[in-house]
Amino acid sequence: MAERPARRTIARVRSEQLTFLGADALLDLHQRTRDLERRGRDGVIVEAGCARGGSALVVAGAKAPSRAMYVYDVFGMIPPPTDEDGSDVHERYEVIVKGDAGPGYYGYENNLREQVHDAFDRYGLPPEEHNVHLVEGRYEDTLRLDDPVVLAHIDCDWYASVMTCLIRLEPLLVPGGVMVIDDYNVWSGARRAVDEYFADKGARFRFRHGARLQIERRTTGDRS
User: Fold this and answer.
1) Where are the beta strands (DSSP E) in the chain?
2) Among 119, 164, 169, 196, which residue has the least CB neighbours within 10 Å?
3) Contact 215/188 with Cβ under 8 angstroms?
4) E-strand spans in 43-199?
5) Are 174 and 199 contacting, i.e. CB atoms less than 8 angstroms apart?
């Protein structure tokens, strides 16, 4: 998907409320995916936390149909935070469980996985034809990959979920591969998980703060 069609898709998924991400963050995901395709990098794509599927649609439209993409989500109510999360997270969770997160909040849907699958069909990206796998369940139970990972979009808000994704995915990240952390500047738990995990690993990664935090594994000899 070229940039102009991508911008139309981004506008559409936002107008249909399929994502909470802004246009700049979605465009970053598109461009990062197109870049890895141009460079011919090997590896699967992972998204952890897809809401109604908007960001996954943008990425799927930018990747080669043959490249596997795994979309992990509980496809329902977000799990509760833990003591490692700050008061901001716990206050937000209380709003959610009270049913006050706003009309159309994805966590209140009973058939969210089917809705996401249908959205892929409506956007001309049938999952079965585009090597997209919708994996339902909690990350600690489902996120068990052996494949090298070239791009991981981690959008799962709380400390425990983000930490699980980092532990399971970072060892699989190929040189030049990138993890995009959606909530680093939003929720205290996500920020704490990233800071703790990479506290002793920083020399092996490049950290870019743009629309979202991007963490790229350095290639051999890369010291820039």
Assistant:
1) 44-48, 69-73, 132-136, 149-154, 173-181, 205-209, 213-217
2) 196
3) no
4) 44-48, 69-73, 132-136, 149-154, 173-181
5) no
Walk me through the domains of the chain, giving residue ranges and CATH numbers: 3-217 (3.40.50.150)
CA 38 – CA 178 distance, rounded (Å): 15
Max CA pair span of the chain? 52
Cα separation of 177 and 217, whole Å? 6
Measured CA to CA, the distance from residue 193 to residue 184 in angstroms comes to 9
pLDDT in tens, 42-74: 999 999 999 999 999 999 999 999 999 999 999
The 10s digit of each residue's pLDDT in 104-163 is 789 998 899 999 999 999 999 999 999 999 999 999 999 999 999 999 999 999 999 999
Single pTM value for the model: 0.94
